[in-house]
Amino acid sequence: MSVYAIYRELFPPQTVEHAQRAYFTAPDTVNLVVAKASLLQIYAFVEYTPESTVDEQSNETDKEGENERSHSEEQTLVYPKWNPLKSAVETKGRLELVAQYKLNGSISTMGVVRTSSPRGKAGCDSLLLGFNDAKMSLLEWSPETHAIVTVSIHYYERDEMKKEFLTNPYPPALHVDPQQRCALLNFYDNKLAVLPFCQSEGFNPTASQAMDQEEEEQSQKWPYSPSFVIDLEKVDPRIRNVIDMTFLSGYYEPTLAILFQTEQTWTGRLVTTKDTVSIVVISLDLSAKAYPIIYSLDHLPYDCRSLVAMPKPVDGLLVIASNALLHVSQGSPGVGVAVNGYTRKTTEFPGMIYDSALIEQNLMLDGAKALSMGGHRCLLFLQNGDWVSVQMNMDGNKVVGMAMTTLHHPPPLEMQQGERSPMACIPTCITSVKDGEFFFLGSRVGDSLLIKWKHGSEVGKTSDIDWTFSVCDALLNTGPMVDLAVGDMENKDSVSDLTDKTGAFPDLELVSCSGYGKNGALCVFQRHVRPETTFSFSQSDCQAMWSIKCRREHYFEGVQVGGNQHTQNAFDKFLFISKSTSTLVLAAGDELCELEGSHFYTTGPTVAVSTLFDHTRIVQVYTHGVMLLSPNGTLVQTVSVKESRITDASIHDPYILLTLENQTVVAFRGDAETKDIVPIPVPSTMNNKSVLIANVFADTSSVFASVSEKLSMAAKKSRRSDVGGKRKAQDPAHPDTIKKTYVPPVHVEFDDIDLDLYGDSVEPTTSQVRIEPEDEVMTEALSKDMATEQVDEINVSVKGGLEQVAMMSFWCLIYTVGGTLQLHSLPDFKECFNFPQFDVLPSLITDASQDPTTVHTSNHNEKEAGTVKELIIANIGKEGKDPHLVARTGSNDIVIYKAFAYVPPQETNEATPSKGDRLALRFSRVHHDYVSRHATSEEPPPSQPSQPSQPSQPSQPSQPSQPSQLSQPSQHQQYSNRHRQLIPFNDVAGYAGVFVAGPQPAWLMCSCKSFVRVHPMKSDQPVVGFTQFHNVNLKHGFITVDAESTIRLCSLPVENATYDMDWVMQKVPLGQTAHKIQYDPSMRVYAVLVSTPTSVRLINEEGVPVDGGGEEDTRGPGEFLPLVDRYSLLMVSPVTWETVDRIEFEEYEQGFSLQCVALESKQTSTGRKHFMTVGTGYLRGEDTAMRGSIYIFDIIEVVPEPNNPQTNHRYKHLHTEDVKGAVTAMCDVSGHLVSCIGSKVIIWSFEDNESLVGVAFIDVQIYVTSLCSIKNFILLGDAQKSVWFLGFQLEPAKLVLLGKDYQSFEVASVNFIIDDKSLFLLVGDTDDNLDIYQYAPFNLQSFAGQKLMRRGDFHVGAQVKTMVRLPQIARTEKGLDYSRRQYCLCGSFSGSISVVSPIPEKTFKRLNTLYGQLVNGLQHVAGLNPRAFRLIKGPKQRMASNRTKAILDGDLVFGFAGLSIHQQKEMTKQIGTTVAKIMEDLVDIDSSIDHF
């Protein structure tokens, strides 16, 4: 029988392979384009000036900084004081994510080119991506859709070019001519594909005007000429085994330098053949297709690795070899410097300089990356993490030598960023981000860093401090994952009621070994947010809650700056709890106690509570009116609403917007003079439309600006661009199209970060400050934290000039029964944005002009309008917050849109005036993986009447149904207000975002380096109410109410957890390479096998050094010793993640395997006990026979050290078994220990906890890499010979080979997948594939089971090094339960976590037909084909493949949930199913693997 499984990536790749700087999204935005395996990310580089308060802010401690605050506030009023700071203060940089794409292929090379397309003429670059084996795509950015478009795709994988390669060992490499004349793709060793680009007429002054015109039209259509392929053997017959190539600048024709090795050699053959590398520089005449050789140089050292073109004034080429650094240029014989003592032995290059001081630095240049730092300097980044500064010694314009100094980790890096890894070891790519100031260092094994640098000569300091570096930003890296373990969450809650789970499921976390060397770390992953509860109590019948900050007012208007210092961080004063028939008001002091004798409305439910007039008045909205109260609870004013009952309210100082049951809107605004509220007339055109949802939003990011404002700003900017940087500091005060492109001036940045966290700090000036309004804080008490004082005459006079006032603008969001989304400006309710069919949830929302709205109110729309149940605009973010539109649909799915500025092209002059007042903005949909598991039917009862369900029934117009409802207020009294489930917050542990209440609560949050993430929260009961809460006992926390009316005060753990990634993640640095990790379930601790490289001098059995010589070292200077890893075993506590015990192994002893095994033992009642076993081998070179050991440790409880309760466990060594051979893999089977020793598998019995006795053995093939057992079956993977399946019989003990795979390929990891009664073997190989086998003795082709049947294969795109098997969770009548299916989690070298899970046959076939629709019906980035990507790759694999598509590509299938409703219906209609059915399948798959 065949297997039906689905593959899905749960956590994306994180290892940075390539990075390029480009002006990609806008002509004046510096973008950093980063490729992480199959993930393409585009970041904007933002330079800003840190203010002292900002620095404190970044540590998320928002307690201090009160006194600096007062100065800053006064300065915000007086403009000129800020300008001088700009030059004096150091700027820092950060990266902000603009877009990211999951590609159907791994990016193997990348280049940036400026073409002559309209986009290139506007000053923007295009992006070239290269893929295996020889594909190339040209991409551009489309500002209209805020997304990438594929301009062209080029394909060169022709069979006649492959020659003898079954597989292609040469990854393709892209090289772009610095003058943008052409791009080259080097593939299949010595083939070059040339893509010539059309130059704009500026480059070609000789051609006639007429020709230019034609060419111009041609280049408009195609930015490039037809590409062609050059075979380098025809240019020079010696060119093969190309090592590297690069373009040289400053030549009239594109000029290419090629480094190659005609005859290959290696270290052992140097006596006969050395200096085999040559360099050739050729000129490419693209029109004549002639390629003359300009100059060449032979006899370079055999270990040359890469070429770097040096800019003027040095010119020429830098050649990096393992033991030397060479410089080659035209007319010079070449000069080189030796960097260690081995250079003399490996090369006889004539121009080599041997400088003893340099040789003793012991540098190894393998894999070094170089970056030219301007002038005569360049910087080398070595594999061991050191950096080397290279200074060229010039004689005239010739290079005569090089001076090199090693910079060991510059101390500022460690001082400033205590929590950052010291430096990226093993750099993979390096690119300058801002010339002369910033560069980006990408790494596969550590975090990639954005670094700011200065050279001493520029600073004018003394020469001892030559270079200064500081880390400005880092991209977190979780790769490469070499091992995974699943452990129990340690419960840190002080409240016990949370731990009594109704389900029997333990809280699990996933821990991986990641990184290498100094960047070694453990990464702890959780899918769910797990808040820490500090206190909880019960309160019957709670439905919603709000916390309120308020303060006494000051009676003088313009000078309130000093008066409100305490509000930014003020504690919440009141907590309102709305019930079905009453409202409870609690005073929040040191403890919560009920308020007596106040005038608050308590006799019925409350719709919303907030504050007006900068927290000096409290507004309470109930079903029939609005009350205004002073901070001590005395009534100031009541406004009753007669027309109909109030179902919903949105309050943002100074506006109040009420939605009534008859689907009209009533608006009020606070009058700053009289301190009371006055109604604002709502135009009748708006109320005729049956409004479902209305919200107020205050925009401070200046994204919300009209077309005419944007155009005038652009004009202003272009006028000003030639004026110096001094003026620039003021720009962002005008709302700004591309706000973050120049250095934001000090004041904006300061508000940007601080004020958002603190709420408003500056009162009269708020209009110009970027405070983060907690936007539409509909029922949210958050509004009180917001920007408050509205713009009145006083503010304007303080500021001088109306233009800054625009920084804070108020908007009203309307969603009608017809499904139209509108934005109106306040207070005049003028429509500025209109999108007619929002209910289909498209991927892009644009402004439709006013006329077509009438057309769209057709019947089918009335039907679907019910799909959107809630809609808010909220600021989400951490450092800088961006406005997002968040919708909740009828099926409880969350749809998120991000606003981006877009000025429509101005075609004709007469169209401009009509469009000028429209909003210059669009919304693009943010894709996320969250699929709701609870459709509306399961919603808690209070929300049913709340959804105005009458209008969404198409049968009749909504008007007649209203009076009948109002005539029986008694039965509806209970559920008057709409039940809100999207609740914004603006400061929970420093994040602003949205909380999604309901049966499956979730958090929407992000930082500038990520898109909005949807993090589900673990909860037994549906959450019905939420509010952020800040007081003495709970700093920046929140309160939730669940359906059982339990109220919990919680905080979000942020000390070391990050919420920016797809999963909640914590990185625990170890400072050394982690190889294996195991969890001991009985003692609840982790065992980790780690190593540190140490230099060793090999000694044979007699104790004499192998390299000859006596005891004293006879090595020459600079001849360093080889490095061998020194291993140790750590014990890590999962509570604090500190190391509590350590066992060191001997000098040459390498740890190969670590396993927690359950062996037979008389100590426990079950007869089994967990032990930690370690398998080692001694690495002493090839002359000594290998031997190894098996260590068995017990973990025991001991008395902890004083003040450190975590140190209560220790290792107790029970037994060491010395064996002949390395112990490469271990596991347990039926209470016995299975070990692979060399080419044998031996099964041991652990007798009386003191000795190992062998009971059975079998000979296997070459080297066992991985081992796994289930019941009494054993599966092992070999380094060469695929997989073997063994059976073990206990009485009498024997081990037999049941079946094996007769193909040979390299296995990296093995595990099992179980589908009810079928067992499948899952194998990860080193060609990045997953293969599924089955032991099928009754199948004729399997020769009675001797041959394992191949059931399916799948290409992952990264090598799977580790797998963990877990049971699926199934929904049964009794609730959730473990099912009879088991799936595997896979950790890969690219840092991604994926899952392979068995699914029912019907589901598989339904989703497989959908997959076909998605492959053909969607646009795929860079023109890549998902089917081709998932075909298995690799030379030996092709023979074995059996082409059964047994594994479904879940990444693509889950993309279905992010499509618009039109697309979903279209696709499901074509395959004869329904959207609901497909969504149910996705939910089943998603919830079955939801352990973390």
Report what the structure shows.
By secondary structure, this protein is mostly beta strands. 13% of the residues lie in helices and 41% in strands. It has 29 helices and 88 strands. The strands form 20 sheets. Strands 1, 81, 82, 83, 84, 85, 86, 87 and 88 form a 9-stranded mixed sheet that branches. Strand 73 and strand 74 form a beta hairpin. The chain is globular. The relative contact order is 0.09.
Short descriptors:
13% helix; 1492 residues; mainly beta; 88 strands
What's the shape? globular
**Mean pLDDT across all residues, rounded?**
80
Rg calculated over all Cα atoms: 34 Å
Q: Main β-sheet, in a few words?
A: 9 strands, mixed
Structure class: mainly beta
Provide the fold topology.
Blueprint: E1 5-11, E2 18-22, E3 31-36, E4 39-48, H1 52-58, H2 66-77, H3 83-88, E5 92-102, E6 107-113, H4 118-121, E7 126-131, E8 135-142, E9 147-155, H5 159-162, E10 173-176, E11 182-187, E12 191-196, H6 209-221, E13 228-231, H7 232-235, E14 242-248, E15 255-261, E16 277-283, E17 293-300, E18 304-309, E19 317-321, E20 324-328, E21 335-338, H8 343-346, E22 352-353, H9 356-359, E23 369-372, E24 377-381, E25 387-395, E26 398-407, H10 411-416, E27 427-434, E28 438-443, E29 448-455, H11 456-459, E30 467-475, E31 483-488, E32 508-514, E33 521-526, E34 532-538, E35 542-548, E36 574-579, E37 583-588, E38 592-594, E39 606-612, E40 617-622, E41 625-629, E42 635-640, E43 646-652, E44 655-660, E45 665-671, E46 676-680, H12 684-687, E47 691-699, H13 707-720, H14 725-728, H15 746-758, H16 793-799, E48 809-816, E49 821-825, E50 830-835, E51 844-845, H17 853-856, H18 859-864, E52 868-877, E53 881-889, E54 894-901, H19 911-915, E55 921-926, H20 943-946, H21 949-952, H22 961-967, H23 969-972, E56 982-988, E57 991-996, ...
Parallel strand pairs: 1-88, 21-22
Antiparallel strand pairs: 1-87, 2-3, 3-4, 4-5, 6-7, 7-8, 8-9, 10-11, 11-12, 12-13, 14-15, 15-16, 16-17, 18-19, 19-20, 20-21, 23-24, 24-25, 25-26, 27-28, 28-29, 29-30, 31-32, 32-33, 33-64, 34-62, 35-36, 36-37, 37-38, 39-40, 40-41, 41-42, 43-44, 44-45, 45-46, 47-48, 48-49, 49-50, 51-55, 52-53, ...
